[in-house]
Design a protein that fits this description.
Length: 480
Amino acid sequence: MLHFPENFLFGSSTSHFQVEGIDLEFQRNLSDWSIWTKQNNKIKDSTSPYPGSAFSLAYAQDIELAYKLNLKAFRFSLNWAYLCPNPPDNLSLAPKLNPEAVDFYKNIFRLLKQYGLTNFVTLFHFTLPSYLANIGGWTNELTVTQFALFAKLVGETFKDEIDYIITINEPMVYVYHSFISGNWPPGLTNDYYMAFRAMKNLLKGHGLAYHNLKSIRPFDISLSKHWRLFKPYNQFNPLDHYVCGLRDEVFNKGFMNALKSGHLSFPREICFDRNIANLQGYIPNIENTLDYLGINFYTQDTCQYSLANPYNIFGDIVLKKNTKTNCLGWQLAPEALYQILTTEIKPYLKLKNNQTVPVYITENGYPENHTADNDSGDWSLTDHNRCEYILSHLKVVHEAIKTGVDIRSYLYWSLIDNFEWDLGLTPRFGLIRINYANQIRDLRLSARLLGEIAQKRCIESHLLNKPLILPGTILQSKFS
Ligand code: BGC
């Protein structure tokens, strides 16, 4: 039996764009993503996030399902473009909030409170109001100003409702897809200068938002840092180790080092570009701006040095033979999470005053491909692989807690099937299956697994034995 501490929260995560399906956003092209998803060849399976999982219509039911699963925490994000659909007259001024959107989120907060679910609220989860995307998004300082003002508005409007704030979700994942791979808007490829300029502005935005929010109330504030381990393809090859170090420095540690020291700095290799080198230096207001550390974990990567591209700082995915992966080719490596929790993040948990901040796992999840047009039968409910994934990761979280790391949550990504950005609706991460043809929600086996663990706050011995057998029948529900 593996017991989790009294204060440990089992819960789930979602983000606005991936589940809401807001009609107004779609009709009026309010966000960069609402425009992007309408363009040809941007979404691999050609599906649309509207209505997608239709959380904007079904939220009452979805929150009730989370409650029935005994989950105690609910992470979601606010739709910046829906809350602020129109630009202010001048981009140094605060925009006006859309009362319909405020009511929508007030209802969500009210239901979460009613069901006793602790909320985690993300302010920036990858999508921008179109009027900011049009001026260059995070590469433009005015987006920093607008984000800080948006955070203030959110703080004032939901002052009594918010439990935990996550300013920014996975800054380096965002930067990578938007400016290097080009899979996300604005779709720039290998534009390292824009990538690092956006990174710097994201740091500034986080710092300003933090202080604006703190001036309203002593909110608990952090960001969600996607952390992955980089392993050498050949452990005896120093060049493979070198690539791992470089990627670790850029993807994992760069943002965190800046928050720790107040200074942004890049590895020598990147500074060959003078424009990038000039981005380095002190950034006011960012030191000591984490009240806890949010960690998102999915996978580890294997790195191989390539003569053709020696400074490939974000790297290409290389797989060793017989590596276990999920349907997206991501390695299954719970032991990497253990190393991250017990070793990698340690330097970032200690504050200047010697206090240690707690860790909250704000995402961990497993996808399986099922196309959006499936509409009958048991095509994805008995998700043993996802169950295995959850169990193996919870086991290492438990181990890490035993070694003394103060870990306070495990939020599974995602509560419901979601729109997986450029990959569309096909990769299914949900504990709850969405039948896109009729919006019926079905609990997967994994939902009942996590529900049982959450209820007992422990992994009982029978769950550690294979095959996994859970009592009860699968619950179906339809919202009207
Ligand atoms: C993101 C989510 C995404 C999930 C699975 C995280 O990188 O925060 O938006 O859906 O991983 O890819």
